[in-house]
Structures are given as structure tokens and as C-alpha cells.
Amino acid sequence: MVGMRVQHDIHESFAANGFSAVDANTAPLESHKSSLLDDTNKAIIRELQKSGRKPYGAIGKVVGLSEAAVRGRVQRLVEAGIIQIVAVTDPIQLGYRRQALIGVNTTGDLDAIAARLRETDGIDYIVAAAGRFDMLLEVFTADDDELLDLVMRIRKIPGVDHTEVFTYLRLIEQRYDFGVR
Length: 181
What we know:
One of its GO terms (cellular component) is cytosol. Keywords: DNA-binding, Transcription, Transcription regulation. It comes from Bifidobacterium boum. This is AsnC family regulatory protein. The structure is a single chain. By secondary structure, the protein is of the alpha+beta class. The chain folds into two domains: 2-87, Arc Repressor Mutant, subunit A; 93-167, Lrp/AsnC effector binding domain/regulation of amino acid metabolism (RAM) domain (Alpha-Beta Plaits). The chain has seven helices and six strands, in the order E-H-H-H-H-H-E-E-H-E-E-H-E. Helix 3 crosses helix 4 (56-63) and helix 4 packs across helix 5. The radius of gyration is 19 Å and the shape is elongated.
């Protein structure tokens, strides 16, 4: 399956690149990113969400631009971190038989803990959360033994106070065509 992930929250993109969401330097970057989201770029994103392999010429016909103009706009959207065009794989077919969501409670500096988690192999997705857990991690491992090893490594990170593992029994649906605002 081929798809793309469009980041809803620009602050998440900043955090992933080492910026704090309250960093004064993010304001100009944020306004630059939002200025790239004109109606034409939104239409391009919608087309790419239908198929990340759709030719730029075909997208151009839909949005009223040349192939070269679409290519340039997509490149700017990628460079700004607004979109990523990636191959979305089936983890099971790649040998990742165990998938889980891990709720993490922390004490201390959330950004420092997140930095350590970013360095940990096996974690696909890291979010700060409100509610019962401070963070949620999505993980993929070959089997239960590898999952246990990963959970134990996460628990050893300074500031990780508690973890709770929710193993996936079956993926019912995964979508990337949620549109743009």
C-alpha cells in the first residue's frame, strides 16, 4: 500500500526536529508553513492522499497547473515538512507479528524523555497525550519476546514512571485520506 502522511499539528513537526512548541523561533516557520496551504496546494494534497503515486501531470489537470508547477509545489510542501510521501507497508508481511500501543506515565522533563524514546529502535510513533497517560507509543516487533525486551528498555529510561501495553489483535482499518482544512 502506498500513501502519505500529512501532519495535522505543525507543532508536532517542530518537536520532531528539536524545537519546543513554545519556542519563539517557531512563529515565523509556522506562518511560512501555513502560507503554503493555499487552496491549490490543498487540492494537490487531496489528490496525493488518493494515490501517492499519481503522476504530477494528472494532478495538474485536476488543479489547473502544469506538471512542472505541481512538482515544484509538492517539493516545497515536502521541504516545509507539511507532507511526506512514503510507502505505507503491512507490518505483518514484513515480519512484525506483534504490534502494540504503549501508554507511558512520566516524571520530569517530557522533552528529554521523548528524545530518549526517539533513539529507541522499535518505536514507530510517539505522541504527548492528555488524559490517563503522558505519552503514547506505537511499536512493532517480531514477537512477544521482542516486545517484552522493548518494554523493558523503555522502562529503564530515566523519567519513565509507568507503562501499560495494549497489544493489537487485528488491524481493522488504517486510513490516510482524512483531507485538509
